[in-house]
Design brief:
Number of domains: 2
Number of strands: 15
CATH architecture of the largest domain: 3-Layer(aba) Sandwich
Strand order of the largest sheet: 5-4-1-13-14-15
Strand content: 15-25%
Helix content: 25-40%
């Protein structure tokens, strides 16, 4: 089958889709301060199940870097959304690949929790500990670091003043969570470091081309046959459109249908839905399956 046209009707694009890249926060689930306050969004579990049952590859890509893919898969599983660890992608996983390729055996200075530090270490990164010399760092990698403080600011600045690259897992201003948006921390730290040092910032998570390339490799699908589903026009929707993928905005998180209508033409998703159940209803071959189980 030939690759679908980027301007083909959305149902044609859906029928020709070989894999689906889902956002997590605001698309599949809304997480609260505690697990008891977290909820799966309507249709999330069913959509993942039906897409997979239809022979299509599935990948969930979050810009969160606080937790490991295994922990995220477990949290989603507690909400009834079944995804394996290898079906979860985070910017920390992207960072580990970038470090291995670009800075082999060179020390890096990383700020974050287990979701970043453990993933980098498992990927073979030479991490500088608190006793190490920050000026040895080839790169400073910033993630969701709840313990970032004056001392860490000084260590990061010394590394950047000495020529280290500045990489950040995400510079999203906020993301959808239960009851209210949550302000982004990684980008806040990285932009502060850029301000005091003059360093440029490289984004490793959505919507970067680096992230999209790794997602496409992980899911094993050409981007022209990939469907990207998310709630943020500036993240997964922008990333998918730039790569030639079909892009669907679900209005269960950050952005609304009105936001999509007001976006520049080249930034508008192919389809806007009120939630994943609506996507299933119009997806050729999937909606009928869901209706039969209701």
């Amino acid at each position: 089958m030939s690759a679908p046209s980027h301007t083909a009707p959305i149902q044609d694009r859906l029928a020709a889709t070989d894999g689906v890249l889902f956002d997590i926060d605001g698309c599949l689930a809304l997480f609260g301060p505690t697990p008891d306050e977290s909820v799966a969004l309507p249709g999330a579990a069913e959509t993942v199940e039906r897409v997979r049952a239809g022979g299509r590859a599935v990948l969930a890509f979050t810009n969160a870097s606080a937790d490991t893919p295994a922990a995220i898969a477990a949290a989603l599983g507690d909400l009834g959304i079944v995804l394996a660890e290898h079906e979860i992608l985070t910017p920390a996983v992207v960072a580990a690949e970038v470090v291995a390729r670009r800075y082999p055996r060179r020390p890096v200075l990383a700020f974050g929790g287990p979701g970043l530090l453990d993933v980098l270490a498992d990927g073979g990164a030479a991490l500088i500990d608190d006793a190490g010399d920050p000026t040895d760092a080839a790169a400073v990698i910033v993630g969701w670091d709840r313990r970032f403080c004056h001392d860490r600011l000084q260590r990061a600045a010394r590394a950047l003043w000495n020529g280290a690259d500045l990489l950040v897992t995400s510079d999203a201003r906020s993301f959808a969570s239960r009851g209210r948006p949550t302000a982004g921390l990684s980008g806040f730290i990285a932009h502060g470091l850029a301000h005091v040092t003059g360093a440029g910032i490289e984004i490793l998570g959505k919507p970067s081309p680096t992230a999209m390339r790794m997602a496409a490799r992980r899911i094993g699908v050409d981007t022209t046959r990939l469907l990207v589903v998310g709630d943020d026009l500036t993240l997964e929707i922008q990333m998918g459109l730039a790569a030639g993928a079909a892009a669907v905005l679900t209005t269960t998180g950050t952005h609304s249908a009105a936001d999509a209508a007001e976006a520049p033409a080249h930034r508008r998703p192919h389809l806007v839905v009120d939630g994943l159940p609506e996507l299933l209803k119009i997806w050729p071959g999937l909606g009928d399956q869901v209706e039969e189980t209701v």
